[in-house]
Design a protein that fits this description.
Elements (H helix, E strand, L loop, with lengths): L1 H40 L4 E4 L11 H8 L2 E4 L10 H16 L14 E2 L4 E2 L3
Parallel strand pairs: 1-2
Antiparallel strand pairs: 3-4
Helix pairs in contact: 1-3
Length: about 120
């Protein structure tokens, strides 16, 4: 009897934790997708990048930005909770795929996240 109660309580609490995670994730995902679509329509095309204390610059990134008419935007140490970088960048990746084909993917900075690392789910290929 104790085992059944333990299992039921475990399932209940596990379900509660998962539900709140998905709600936050879904909200940031939908917001990020809408934000990316708005930025594209306004011509403010940029890849979002997780940063650190100091921004990183790589050889050839200015050439990439000019060639594909896109900018790199680096966040500092703290990322906003409301934005999913992977989902935002996926919209931009799909836009670039449609406009230029997939060749740009070989030239983009390697720190541009096109994959949701939290869930190991590919979002940009």
């Amino acid at each position: 009897m104790k085992n059944i109660i333990f299992v039921l309580l475990s399932l209940f609490f596990a379900n509660e934790l998962s539900a709140s995670d998905f709600t936050t994730s879904d909200t940031s995902k939908s917001y990020s997708i809408k934000l990316a679509q708005t930025d594209i329509s306004k011509g403010k095309i940029k890849f979002l990048i997780r940063g650190g204390f100091a921004p990183k610059h790589y050889e050839g990134e200015a050439v990439f930005e000019k060639k594909y008419k896109i900018k790199y935007y680096q966040f500092g140490c703290v990322l906003p909770e409301s934005i999913s970088i992977a989902d935002y960048n996926k919209v931009l990746a799909n836009y670039l795929d449609g406009k230029y084909g997939k060749g740009w993917r070989k030239e983009v900075r390697k720190d541009v996240v096109l994959e949701d690392l939290r869930w190991n789910r590919v979002v940009g290929k």
